[in-house]
Amino acid sequence: MPGWERLSTTPLLARYQGVLGEPRASEVLDRLDASLDWQQPSLRLYGREHPIPRRQVWMGEPEACYRYSGRDFMPVAWDPEILAIRDRIATLLAAQGLEVTFNSVLLNRYADGHERMGWHSDDEPELGQDPIVGAVTLGAERPLRFRWKHGAGEPFNVWLPHDSLLLMGPGCQTLLQHALLPRRIPGLRISLTFRQIHWPAGNVGGISAPGDRAPTES
Ligand SMILES: O=C(O)CCC(=O)C(=O)O
Ligand SMILES: [Fe+2]
């Protein structure tokens, strides 16, 4: 049943199911999998190079470049369909009272449940004071795990079904960390995490990518 489900108010966390509808959502998944130039850069952790445990594409406005493991990455140009998805999400968020203009998206490709992303917050200065991130899931349903940065509070899972949108609204990146932990769940999953990079903002190289730090998979 399409519609918004409010999971938390402070911080604002909400999930929408049925973003694109079928068969479009499955067609987009197949096409992105087959046609994007998926990258697997290495990160330098504790003096050693480690390929990230997933693949990714950084896409957006030409000025939305980012720094990753000491290197600058330029975004690839918008794919017209991803631009259409961005606009769809902006409409959905506007209905939640949020005016956002996403100028970039990090696409993450997890071949199966072994592939993952470590604990992080999307709180780089280039994302501004209290960033809003909209994350679309296509493919295998997996849980995004959240834990509180300060004080008590139980960690919790948010399950992300195919063709869903997760809104990480105000407070999410300051109060919580999130991770896509490895799980015995078969199947390809692609997420599209839309962001707004503020430019210029004393930006000397761009945004750091998520997971650009020692992953703590606990
Ligand atoms: O794949 C996901 O749903 C999470 C991705 C994520 O946290 C990110 O791109 O910052
Ligand atoms: Fe993230």
UniProtKB/TrEMBL annotation:
Residues 101-198 form the Fe2OG dioxygenase domain. GO terms for molecular function: dioxygenase activity. One of its GO terms (biological process) is DNA alkylation repair. InterPro entries: AlkB-like, AlkB-like_sf, ALKBH3, Oxoglu/Fe-dep_dioxygenase_dom. Coiled coil: none annotated. Transmembrane segments: none annotated. Pfam families: 2OG-FeII_Oxy_2. It comes from the Bacteria. Keywords: Dioxygenase, Oxidoreductase. The keyword Oxidoreductase applies. This is Alpha-ketoglutarate-dependent dioxygenase AlkB. It comes from Billgrantia tianxiuensis. The lineage of its organism: Bacteria, Pseudomonadati, Pseudomonadota, Gammaproteobacteria, Oceanospirillales.
